[in-house]
Amino acid sequence: MSPKYTIIIPVYNGMPYLKACIESVLNSKFTNFELIVSNDHSTDGGDEYLSGIRHPRIKYIKPSSRLSMAEHWDWALSESTGEWIMFLGQDDGVQSYFFELAELLTIEAKKLNLKLINSRRAYYFWPGCEFKYGDIRVSYSAQNKMSIKSCFYSSLRALTDMSYHELPQMYTNSLFHRDLLDRAKLLQGGKVFTCHPQDANLAALATSLESHYLRCEIPLGWVGSSPKSAGLAISSVENSQAGVGAEIKSLRNEYIEKISSSKLKYNKLAGDFSLNLGSIYYWQALLETPALRHSHFNYLIKNKVFIIFLLSVAWVKESRSAQIRKKDAFTSLLAINNIPILIFYFSYFLVGFIALTQWILMLLFIRIPRRLLKCIKDNEVVYFVPSSDSGLAMSSASLTIDRNVRLAFKGLFIQ
Fold it and tell me: Is this model's pTM higher than 0.85 or not?
């Protein structure tokens, strides 16, 4: 009989964090799951450690050759058998109440005939990330409520004013039903993954195939950041602190080299992968998954006026220092899409003016009053720990949060 849940941990040289990640899943009395750990030829002792684990619900696998990250995820996914599936990064983890909350959410999703579950994110910053994220070890907040979100509206927001990481991604804070993946394979010639980065690919798949998803404001897991995080490496071209900089630069170069030699695509219209623009990552994932959507939407995202607007919004959201650093790569992106500089900057300044006006109006008339009312009305759990508390383990933070959440919400009874 197939398990209800499959959790997949793709591994590559993540030994300093891997044990905590695996233990966060196994430290539960719940048994109806499989944990797949796939090791992409690690050279840091990972194979010896994983080969020595004996647990009835762990399945340890290794691809025959080195793979890019998206290819590795795709290969590991092919080994899964669960009804609901989620990936965990090697420096991530699940909350101690994960399975209890997942049971409540999957029951509700079944009632509503929804195939996607998404939750708020919680963050754990491993030592070595201070140069990027500052004085913070743990950042967690939760509210005892859930809602049904529109995939189409959320997708549009991910192209403009919202990070695509807030979309369902089958990663750390999201569960996908197997039926959804089977539909994607049927429409894409047997493939689930078609492009890089893999999280944007999964977000595009989710919002293209489903009309709605279930959103929970209690985090399912920890999004970890460490010197081994690909996302940290790509976004940290500069600012690397002594002793960590060389490692991060090496990881970044290796990650981009794997993408360039991968069988999976990164659409050429998106320019240089190292531009690290979230809305562009998501846009090119939409471009690489046309079989999942109606032709009208595919026409829209290829339209020149839309592309000018998209790039203007993406550039407005960048800081001045980032714009200076990325200027050459972004100018190349405009050239690839045949966008005249003068037309782009007219759009850029127009979008910037509208964004500034909107921000001022919201600050004065909407955001402050709503935030004050929200603090009074909603019972919210907030947990923050500075990085100076270097001894705080992920498991200890989870247990503390578990107690606080149950006290505040009188259990895990989602409203």
Answer: yes
